[in-house]
Design brief:
The chain is of the alpha/beta class. The protein has helices at residues 38-44, 57-66, 81-98, 108-121, 140-156, 165-173, 206-209, 230-243, 264-272, 286-289, 306-313, 344-355, 358-375, 378-392, 395-400, 405-414; strands spanning 5-6, 20-25, 47-53, 69-72, 102-106, 125-130, 159-162, 182-184, 217-221, 248-252, 276-278, 294-297, 318-321, 336-339. Strands 1-4-3-2-5-6-7-8 form an 8-stranded mixed sheet, sandwiched between helices. Strands 11-10-9-12-13-14 form a 6-stranded parallel sheet, with helices on both faces. Helices cover 42% and strands 15% of the residues. Strand 3 (47-53), helix 2 (57-66) and strand 4 (69-72) form a beta-alpha-beta unit. The N and C termini lie far apart (50 Å).
Length: 415
């Protein structure tokens, strides 16, 4: 049994008469939120789109609002040989039945199983969307296993589409794939930003959260996990409070039950702290940025963090780390600050510096929104993706061989 399948009725090119069919797959239904806009753009550009992930309400919800088909296939995020084999078999059967023109799988488990299933099913064009390298935050045998999984996923794909320039450089240095297979569109980002939704403006949330309008608010948006730097952020916040006693920490995200989940003691500390506000999962994060004075993302690894771009589009400065992916999301000293990962004192120093300088925050916020408007508006980013996929499907590119597609595309742009 392939899993629960639901078809959404959508007008336009999503009908079966569409000339090209793409299967887009991720491991967790939560990741489907990162595909908002991308799926609709592909559909509106003439693709029939099928979304695949593990079962969950967010899979059904995303498919419905994006107007695409949905197929649920259970996949675990942990290493589970028997369950992984069953998932691989189900993916292979699905792709054999659908016979898509191309596949785009991302996230570690779906990336590995999906691209391998697509190879075995004979899909003509296979894209591995590299959204980050989990191996960067791992060690020992686990790191070796993750490296082999990335190598295999990349080997099964015709193109490895990287989310940022530093991620492409890291993947090349790690030997994940050869340079000819690693590709970057524009300055990176898989979705870009809806700059109308994420924009400066009055915040309606502070009163609801019990935060006085004059109090400074340090924000974080994302999964509450170790890899996102939450232990360091919580430690840094205690130092921040000594310098700025009126400060609040607004955590917009959920306690993810992943391998890098926070320990019970730290979670209890967060939930019981009088000046830490934890929202849990929210569907629309846009209003929360307007309640912040700045965003902190003390992450250990990224592909290209959406939160940093959304904050910049909302007109607030961003403090993030020099880690892979995150360092591409800030123009240092212009739109925000870059700090080394793993140092609570670096977080507190940067936060206090900006909290005590409202004029610098204002300038950085304005510069950040201008930077996003120039490079990361969603229509531009998604337009690059759909144009690239259409180009790869052109008969002239197929005749060249997919191994030459990147050079062909670069030559075409140079003209």
């Amino acid at each position: 049994m392939l899993g629960v399948k639901s078809r959404q009725n959508a007008a336009g090119p999503q009908a079966h008469g569409a000339s090209r069919h793409i299967v887009v797959g991720v491991t967790s239904p939560q990741t489907c939120l990162n595909l908002t806009g991308r799926l609709r753009c592909l559909r509106e550009q003439g693709f029939r789109v099928t979304l695949v992930s593990s079962p969950g309400e967010l899979l059904r919800h995303t498919a419905a609002i994006q107007g695409v088909e949905a197929v649920a296939i259970p996949m675990t995020r942990q290493i589970a040989p028997i369950a992984d084999f069953v998932s691989l078999l189900r993916l292979w059967k699905l792709l054999r039945r659908l016979k898509p023109d191309l596949t785009e799988f991302s996230t570690p488990k779906a990336g590995l199983l999906g691209t391998l299933a697509a190879l075995l099913a004979g899909v003509p064009l296979r894209i591995y969307m590299l959204r980050g390298l989990k191996l960067e935050a791992s060690a020992g045998y686990k790191r070796r296993i993750l490296w082999m999984a990335e190598r295999l996923a990349s080997a099964c794909a015709h193109v490895v589409l990287c989310n940022s320039a530093s991620l492409r450089a890291e993947a090349l240095m790690q030997g994940v794939a050869p340079a000819a297979k690693l590709h970057l569109l524009g300055l990176g980002s898989s979705n870009g930003v809806d700059v109308d939704r994420f924009s400066p403006g009055p915040d309606p949330l502070r009163e609801r959260l019990g935060i006085p309008r004059a109090d400074p608010v340090v924000g974080f948006v994302g999964r509450l996990t170790r890899d996102k730097g939450l232990p360091e952020l919580i430690e840094a916040f205690e130092t921040i409070l000594k310098a700025e006693p009126a400060a609040h920490l607004l955590l917009v995200g959920w306690f993810d039950a992943s391998e890098d989940a926070l320990g019970a003691a730290l979670r209890h500390h967060i939930e019981s702290h009088p000046r830490i506000h934890c929202t849990g999962f929210v569907n629309d994060t846009a209003p929360y940025y307007r309640a912040m004075d700045l965003l902190v993302l003390p992450t250990w690894r990224e592909g290209f963090p959406n939160a940093a771009l959304e904050a910049a589009a909302s007109g607030i400065p961003v403090i993030t780390t020099l880690s892979t992916g995150s360092r591409d999301a800030v123009v240092p000293e212009v739109t925000g600050l870059l700090i080394p990962p793993g140092y609570p004192e670096a977080i507190s120093e940067a936060v206090v510096k900006l909290l005590r300088n409202p004029e610098i925050r204002r300038r950085m916020g304005e510069a950040g929104r201008a930077w996003v408007l120039e490079h990361f508006v969603d229509q531009r980013v998604l337009g690059l993706t759909t144009a690239y996929y259409k180009m790869l499907l052109e008969p002239s590119v197929a005749e060249l061989g997919l191994g030459s597609a990147k050079a062909w595309a670069q030559d075409r742009r140079a003209r």
